[in-house]
Write a structure and sequence with these properties.
The chain has 301 residues and is α/β, with parallel strands linked by helices. The chain is 45% helix and 14% strand. It has one domain: NAD(P)-binding Rossmann-like Domain (Rossmann fold), CATH 3.40.50.
């Protein structure tokens, strides 16, 4: 059997009713995994489940919003009761409430953090507990975003949550290593309803929805493809082939595969006895300023 096959494995995918999450669930099932399909939208979750079953796979729907511990526990219970075990978590569920800082409400901020960050925490904790009890290792895959890597105008809540997920994966990679459970973050870029909210890509998304091919320029320079272009990385990270890969942030989209660096010191200076403001100003201008990094995604072209 290929090391990329998932026969006999059981995966939970949150937010699997549509778009990227659905593509992940279908790809995992195609590779042989049984899948617990979670979504807030019951009809969407059932549709994904039925599509897996119609292709000869095994899946069950577990409907509910991530965030609460009760939802996380229900997902693990669904996996155990339906398929007897749990091996993989793909924490994908998400929501957007984009506003510039001075217009963002408490509710806008809290919902996004609750869904992305707390939802991944509670499901990750429940799955990690189950995997440790099982004693056979496992895979936890958190879904980040370029917004969390670079910052993104109008997305204080989303960027903060996605940055937190990468730090969470790195922390879990340390805490779970002894149990042979890997934890990684995937940074996907794909045409999706979320991408459609970006003005520069709205027209491209409409063309994609209408069945037109994605131009090579976007696939390579913007790393934009279909949700199905992202799914092979999820399958690989869920498989035996990636058993030695943990604590990483890996980007994929269109034709591009990326390994992100861990945060690192760019430069350091020292002052005997410590610093005062004037000394900091002087050394900033002489040694640091030309090394400072810009916010926002890398320039294209």
């Amino acid at each position: 059997m290929s090391a990329q096959r998932l026969d006999g494995r059981v995966a939970i995918v949150t937010g699997a009713g549509r778009s990227l999450g659905k593509a992940y669930a279908l790809a995992l099932a195609s590779a042989g995994a049984s899948v617990v399909v979670n979504d807030l939208d019951g009809a969407a979750a059932e549709a994904t489940t039925e599509q897996i079953a119609s292709a000869g796979g095994r899946a069950v729907a577990s409907i509910g919003p991530v965030g609460d511990t009760s939802t996380a526990d229900a997902l693990v219970t669904a996996a155990r009761e339906s398929f007897g075990r749990i091996d993989v978590l793909v924490a994908n569920a998400g929501v957007l409430r984009d506003r510039v800082l001075w217009k963002m409400s408490d509710e806008d901020f809290d919902l996004v953090i609750e869904t992305h960050l707390r939802g991944s925490f509670t499901t990750g904790r429940a799955v990690a507990t189950a995997l440790r009890e099982q004693g056979e290792g496992g895979r936890i895959i958190l879904v980040g975003s370029p917004a969390g890597q670079h910052g993104s105008f109008g997305q204080t809540n989303y960027a903060a949550a996605k940055a937190g997920l990468v730090a969470m994966a790195r922390t879990w990679s340390l805490e779970l290593a002894r149990a042979e459970i890997t934890a990684n973050a995937v940074i996907p870029t794909a045409l999706s309803p979320m991408t459609a909210t970006i003005p520069a890509y709205a027209e491209l998304y409409e063309s994609f929805v209408n069945g037109e091919p994605i131009p090579a320029q976007y696939r390579r320079d913007h790393a934009l493809g279909s949700p199905e272009d992202v799914a092979p990385l999820i399958v690989w990270l869920a498989s035996d082939a990636s058993a030695d890969v943990t604590g990483q942030a890996i980007g994929i989209g269109g034709d591009k595969l990326t390994l992100y660096a861990h945060p690192a010191e760019l430069h350091a200076a020292y002052a005997d006895g410590g610093w005062d403001a004037a000394g900091i100003d002087a050394v900033w201008r002489s040694e640091f300023a030309h090394r400072a990094q810009r916010s926002g995604p890398p320039s294209i072209g």
